[in-house]
Write a structure and sequence with these properties.
- The chain has 287 residues and is of the alpha+beta class.
- It contains six helices and 15 strands.
- The protein has helices spanning 13-17, 31-38, 119-128, 146-153, 157-169, 252-286, and strands at 2-4, 71-74, 86-91, 96-100, 107-110, 112-116, 136-140, 176-180, 186-191, 197-200, 208-213, 219-222, 225-227, 231-235, 243-249.
- A five-stranded antiparallel β-sheet has the order 8-9-15-11-12, covered by helices on one side.
- A hairpin with a 5-residue loop joins β8 (176-180) and β9.
Length: 287
């Protein structure tokens, strides 16, 4: 994926150019990313730049590796990132492109979750990077979607028990694989076995839902927790068989819009039918 300023990569880059922008699915600028960018220990975005990202600052910070971006697109007058972590691959009149020498996976499994009350508390911990992201995921309870809030409240103690079981067993062949990249509003992730937490380095944003699909076709809704302040995490029930975790983008605005559209088409149909009836009555009256 690519990370760029709003000067070099405008919103909806994914739709316009087919590039995978770390800001998420056609996101104009999720507020959690702004919190990340403006944090003094991570992005160091000046307060007067809030609302418009003029340049990426401090991309060498190890926390940026969590976001799974492999390229930095910068303005030509922006200082080059650390050559130990990035290398120049293209320099043009409008932008310069650097490639990261090491890229973390897009999705992975961890055995332990630490939960905080606010995103600010999580980002303070992320700024220190005093944890191993392959072992621990940092979550906050500021879940911004009604469905996911309800699912998180219903989360049973078994999840914590299974998480500890996963940490104890540490099965080495657990893996994750993104199996469908053609539709940006759907993410299908193959998990070789369940247990622990599935972390996806995509934007946490209201409207995303998660469903765990077993081999026998059974589907179970699962909550999406905010991970590391900006990403997504899904608690996985224990299973020794492969499962698919399917994430779909279905915000409330889509549901409202579809209902309004159906209502409008129904009204047009009634009006059209009424017009036909009136014309039919007029013709019969004239005869």
């Amino acid at each position: 994926r690519m990370a760029g300023t709003f000067r070099t990569m405008m919103p909806e880059t994914a739709s316009a150019y087919g590039l995978s922008d770390l800001r998420g699915y056609d996101a104009l600028g999720p507020v959690r990313y702004y919190k990340w960018w403006e944090h003094g220990g991570i992005g160091q975005l000046p307060k007067d730049w809030y609302g418009y990202l003029l340049q990426l600052r401090n991309p060498e910070h190890p926390a940026w590796g969590l976001l799974n971006f492999g390229y930095v697109v910068s303005a030509v007058n922006q200082p080059a990132p650390n050559s130990e972590k990035f290398e120049l691959v293209s320099r043009g009149e409008d932008a310069t492109i650097y490639q990261a020498k090491q890229v973390r996976p897009r999705a992975w499994i961890v055995g332990v979750a630490e939960k905080y009350e606010t995103v600010e508390q999580v980002l303070d911990r992320v700024a220190k990077m005093d944890f191993d992201p392959d072992k621990v995921v940092l979550l906050d309870r500021q879940i911004e979607d009604g469905v996911n809030r309800e699912l998180a409240r219903e989360e049973k103690n078994e999840i914590q028990t299974l998480t500890h079981e996963f940490r104890r067993t540490r099965v080495p062949w657990t893996y994750v694989e993104l199996v469908d990249q053609r539709r940006p509003e759907v993410k299908s992730i193959l998990v070789s076995q369940g247990g622990g937490w599935l972390v996806l380095a995509d934007s946490y944003f209201p409207g995303w839902t998660a469903t765990i699909i077993e081999e026998n076709g059974k589907e179970t809704a699962a909550p999406i927790w905010p991970a590391y302040g900006v990403m997504r995490a899904v608690p996985m029930p224990w299973t020794d068989k492969p499962v698919i975790v399917e994430m779909r983008y279905r915000p409330r605005s889509w549901k409202v819009g579809s209902r309004v559209s159906v209502g409008a088409w129904g009204l047009f149909a009634i009006m059209g039918l009424g017009g036909l009836v009136m014309r039919g009555l007029g013709l019969r009256g004239g005869g």
